[in-house]
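Database export, one record per block. Field names are fixed; values are copied verbatim from the stored entry.
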Amino acid sequence: MSIANSSDPYPRMEASAGITRKCLEILTENDCRIQIITKSSMVTRDGDLLVKVPSTVALTITTDDDGTARLLEPQAPLPSERIRALKDLSREGIPVSVRIDPIIPFVNDKPEKLVRKLLKQWREAYN
């Protein structure tokens, strides 16, 4: 079951509504495989469910600069929060990936710094 191919499963209202969490509970009770694509660090809340079945999480990160992100994605969690979520999920044994998206000329079209930061966080998670 792939969750969020067209919209994020963790909108801000999810913190109080818990609809995604309820869906994940049903999916894990029925032993479904889960793939989550999100920009939200809130996904870590559901790590206890994701470890119960084969799961993977892809987090979209546009830049590693929180200030730039506030301009580009004013309603999204900061990239520093998403990078921390990647580390936390990795520590729980949940496979994670990063989508550097969208690529914006002259803003993030040279993602080497972000990739280095991500690799550092990944190494810390596994050491």
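Remark 1: The chain has a mean pLDDT of 91.
Remark 2: Strands lie at 2-3, 34-38, 55-60, 96-99.
End of record.
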